[in-house]
Amino acid sequence: MQKSTPFQPAHRLWGRILPAGGFSRSLSLLKLPEAIQEHVGRGRIPVSVAREIGKLDSEARQHEMAQEYLAGELTTGQAQATKKGSGAKGSDAAKQSKKWTQSGISITVAYGRGVTLADIAEALEQRAQLLRADGRTKRAA
């Protein structure tokens, strides 16, 4: 059995990123937290998503975005669009989005600064009431 070294995650990561892009862009991935590098090295997080994760301004937000991707709550396209949303370095855009998938149904909510999860829940509850009332007479399209 091979002895583990601190450089092993970086070596696995490096082997996946060199073919994907330029040298300096690839080097930036080595600044990611080790746990995220490990997911990239094992192919669980694509290099394109990891680059977007690396643009976030806090390690906590980087871990959050990685977990959202791994849980299937975030697509590659959404991750790439995140740099335009709140939380990215140098960004002043106010829009954020959250996506949930359950029983084959995906719900994406876009919201601005200052909106709380309670606000989102209330809006979804109101929409659910309208759908229930309407659903008694109509089938889903």
Automatic annotation (TrEMBL):
Q: Which SUPFAM superfamilies match?
A: KorB DNA-binding domain-like (SSF109709)
Q: Where is this region: Disordered?
A: 75-101
Q: Residue ranges of the ParB/Spo0J HTH domain?
A: 26-80
InterPro entries, sorted: HTH_ParB/Spo0J
Q: Which domain of life is it from?
A: Bacteria
Keyword Amino-acid biosynthesis tagged: no
Keyword annotations of the record? Plasmid
Protein name as it appears in the record: ParB/Spo0J HTH domain-containing protein
Organism expressing this protein natively? Lacipirellula limnantheis
